[in-house]
Amino acid sequence: MATQKVGGEVDSLCTRCKLSLAHTILAMVGPKIARVRCNTCGGEHAFRGKAGVTDRPTKAATAKAARAGTPRAEKVVISFDDQLAGKDIASAPKYSPKDTYRVDQVLHHPTFGVGLVTAVRGDKVDLTFRSDTKTLVHGRGGEPVDRPAFNPPSNKRSGPADKPMADPPPDLDMDVEAASESSPPSGD
Ligand SMILES: [Zn+2]
Predict the structure, then answer these.
(1) Rounded to the nearest whole angstrom, what is the distance from the C-alpha of residue 19 to the centroid of ligand 1?
(2) Model confidence, pTM
(3) Overall domain count for the chain
(4) CA–centroid distance, residue 38 to ligand 1 (Å)
């Protein structure tokens, strides 16, 4: 491999001729050719080496640059209050598994409060409440309902948990007897 130097010749991909042609080396950076002039068209350009071998940034770097230059779309989060805006909450019916609901309907649930129907699947309705979403049954009119009509809360954050029962007060009589047995009165 011949030593390349400024003024020497090298094969490079010419940006104008679109061909790998003889170029005159115009500048070098260390051992690498930086700039060349096409012997065919006289155009000066950065050294490209042979076709297929380029110093272009990798795809990952290109994608990263593209991401950095593209503003991300704002994530729009519709709050519960916004979802209920415009809904007639005052006249919302009380939830009953016997009633039939439709999407976008507002209702009052005795446990979860005001809820918005977001989906209807057969005899089930998905409801969004302020703190949770629930799947409830509906359209059970005429049929006896012998079980709770709502799913139990998945996380028990509301209300204090059952407090462990306080230990019963020690039986004083027992304590006295035990004490008298384990430590007899000192008589000497
Ligand atoms: Zn050229």
Answers:
(1) 7
(2) 0.37
(3) 2
(4) 5
